[in-house]
Amino acid sequence: MRRAGRTSPSARSLALVRVAMPALFLAGVAGFLVLGILGLALARHAGGRPVVYGASAALSAILCLVAAYDLIAAVGPSHELVLPLGLPWIGAHFRIDALSAAFLVVVNLGAGAASLFGLGDGRHEEAPERVLPFYPLFLAGMNLVVLAADAFTFLFAWELMSLASWALVLAHHRAAGNVRAGYVYLMMAGFGTLMLVLAFGLLAGHAGTYEFGMMRVSAPGALVAGAVLGLALLGAGSKAGLVPLHVWLPLAHPAAPSHVSALMSGVMTKVAVYGFVRIVFDLLGPPDWWWSMVVLALGGITAVLGVLYALMQHDLKRLLAYHTVENIGIIFAGLGLALAFKANAMPAAAALALTGALFHVLNHMLFKSLLFFGSGAVLSATGERDMERLGGLIGAMPLTAFAFLAGSLAISALPPLNGFVSEWLIFQAILLSPALPQWGLKLMVPAIGAMLALSAALAAACFVKAFGVTFLGRGRSGAAGRAREADRFSLAAMLALVGLCVLCGILPGFVIDALAPVAQPLVGGHMPAQAGIQWLSIVPVEESRSSYNGLLVFLFIAVAAWLSAVAVHRWASRAVRRGPAWDCGFPDASPATEYTAGSFAQPIRRVFGTLVFRARESVDMPAPGDMRPARFEVQLRDLIWELVYVPISDAVGAIATRLNFVQFLTIQRYLALVFVSLVGLLVALAVAP
Amino acid sequence: MTWDVAVNLAIQGGQMLVVLLLAPLLTGFVRKVKARLLRRQGPPVLQPYRDLLRLLRKEVVLADSASWVFRVAPYLIFAATWVAAALVPTFGLGLTFSWSADLIVIAGLLGSARFFLALAGLDVGTSFGGIGSSREVMIASLAEPALIIVVFTLALIAGSTQLSTIAGVMESGAVGLRVSLLLALVALIIVAIAENGRIPVDNPATHLELTMVHEAMVLEYSGRHLALIELAAFLKLLLYVSVIACVFAPWGLARPDAAPAALGIGLGAYVGKLAVAGFLLALFETSIAKMRVFRVPVFLGAALMLALLGTLLMFVTRVR
Fold this sequence. Notes:
The complex is a heterodimer of chains A (about 700) and B (about 325).
Chain A: H1 4-7, H2 11-42, H3 48-72, E1 81-83, E2 92-94, H4 98-121, H5 134-147, H6 151-169, H7 178-204, H8 212-217, H9 222-240, H10 249-255, H11 258-283, H12 289-311, H13 316-343, H14 347-382, H15 393-396, H16 398-411, H17 418-430, H18 439-471, H19 478-481, H20 488-506, H21 508-523, H22 550-572, E3 576-579, H23 597-612, E4 616-620, E5 631-635, H24 639-658, H25 667-687
Antiparallel strand pairs in A: 1-2, 4-5
Helix pairs in contact in A: 2-3, 2-5, 3-4, 4-5, 4-11, 4-14, 4-20, 5-6, 5-11, 6-7, 6-11, 7-9, 7-10, 9-11, 10-11, 10-13, 11-13, 11-14, 12-13, 12-18, 13-14, 13-17, 13-18, 14-16, 14-17, 14-20, 14-21, 16-18, 16-20, 17-20
Chain B: H1 2-37, H2 47-57, E1 60-63, H3 68-86, H4 103-123, H5 127-158, H6 163-172, H7 179-195, H8 214-217, H9 223-248, H10 260-286, H11 296-317
Helix pairs in contact in B: 1-3, 1-9, 1-10, 2-9, 3-4, 3-9, 4-5, 5-6, 5-7, 5-11, 6-9, 7-9, 7-11, 9-10
């Protein structure tokens, strides 16, 4: 269903648009590169910040609108633009189809909002010369990944994105822990790119065709395709944050300046999702059904573990970073379902699952950016990220608090906001899966549904904690008392995203329709058109099965709340008296008696933490009469770090120690070593088929 | 055609009023039965109405540290719960707006209400609110997935997540007895008990800090705010009873194009179902002791596992 007929640009102008589209976006990327150079030149200048962020915001907004036009007008796949850059016999290929257009909307919308926030919040930056040159470079890298139409350009752009963001993570390199965060990130980014290099190598095959167009038509064998899936999961998954490859996210995302954190969490992880979708749904050909088992299992585990880790955090930005892990899990669960349906030739169901996942990509970009902006505003206002030292900020920062509350509702998948819609779509896809023929999937999908439901409920708990402890109650430190409301650019960025969260929640039909041309080529079907449905409801399959109307639910709640408030105030009572809170006979309770983030999470830690984190609580209570303070300690163990990463790093260390002697050989021995390895490689080549 | 629309609109409007008017009665009835079972006289059945009116007329005493969240939350909690309760078929299936929200949305609306209630508990900054909120979200984090999985089972049986369709399919008798249904029923009852803060999960009649969840969260509320929160709690109990009744005991539900007499029968049947459910709840509560807070996860984990088992059975046995 292309709606090109309705917007009706004539065929000739459409053809022109198809030719011009990649060039337009490349011009945008060039603009970002120029801004990077400007940022380098103006870094210490007072005008640097407004110029770089202002221009970035404007450029991103333009690119976002163009991409949205491309998507909504269903321009179709653009012509491939080949530039004589990169490897001489390949060149650099650029092409925009509906999938790239959808992700260009996500990337540039997030980039625009982050630039707007940076325009205001950037004034608190201590080291602008370490941020301004790399920030536009980061945006250019993310755009280029989505534009690339050959493996070399893709990998180059991927590395540009990784390295620029790595530089931004190290912007505050003197702060404790940031150097380690940067190191872990660099390691994981290198690992991920290596996996992608291998994946593309396998896709290219013996012929060495690095263009995506050629990869698409050549069908690899079952074994090779399975290997590519595994490599794509490792490569894109490590960037996106799939468990157990997520370890760098909660270190690196919070270390960067707040608007960069928002970009890394809200947008860069989506570029990784793009990489996965591009390779597995587009380039790899028809899927085997067991692929979906792997993706579903990883998605479900990632969703639950991500939110459990988040619940245990009391650093606001780290909590948000762990939540990104959770949402990536939800997205991959949707993608896994889509793979399962695609493998069994059920295009309508596959389109539903894929649309749900892609809708969640957009939603997560919106509310995660919003929440990181909120945490950034709190950080700038108080200098604190530790929730145990915050509290009561709703008084000093009412608008920031409102925006953070809206983001919390959205990310907790509560109706009528946007997070609910995409999870609802994925649930509807799960309900179609008894028709899948394979027993493995029949047994697995309900469990995945349970895990998604569990993660949604835990997310709500987590954001009650995040919002409640940070913004409600009484301030727990002097820093919380001195807070001031954020500046107007930061507020504009946050409130704009609040508006988009509400709009996507109450008018989801338009987003679903815009995603129809994305799903069509990837799974061979699309969801039914939603725009013509009465009252702007959404109907994923058929009306007797399920339907949802966010607009009406929103209106019902608003009207019911308003009516009850008016009625109560009119006919009952409107008197208000202020008084001290009930103190149980202990007046002047200090804010230290308030519930903290740690105590709020204690029941959930008892329920889940003993298994997942080997949580141990120890109480050191002095004997009666003893005046020393009592102590309460909680020990949590990160089992994934201990069981996966520590052994690997130990093994690498041990091997390096063993091989240390190779550093101190004579020249003859070196030459012998080189000769032996050369012969070995030649023999291997000769033996290999 | 327009006549049908008008009738359905009237049913929808009537439904909103019926749930609002019957909710305090159900709670009053349960309290009365509980008191009689304990050989006490107990307050009159209409006492909850009097309490609500008295609270509505009183002034609100706000803690100094309370923010706007504290003042807005009662209205939002009430509105979300009321909307959810208005979309559950009670006496008739012809709800005009039932297509605007399915059972998953109703679960989500209750989640929204709980989100604000838990925030309100944290807003004043006393330990009581915090203890209530943190326990409430712990209970919800297990009860909500169990509810969603029960919805999966029902949806797979009826081929729809719309509650009216599910009730219609159940009423038609085409389903018959199924193990999955039984498992779903047990899980749903456990969820309902936990979500409504009834014994053995929480005690709605106590103010003892070691045991309370819901009452701890609303400790700082007074006057009209408290009235709305109480009314929302009454509505939630009614909602769960209505869901269980319309799925597992759909007898007497008026068809969408029903005559007034059928509506009357539906209403009578509904009141009868409420009375039976209220009596059973009171009997259950009287015969069991409150459990420790950290036994609750085991109780709810059982619901989660039963519901999952029911869904798995559906997945395995059904191709549809």
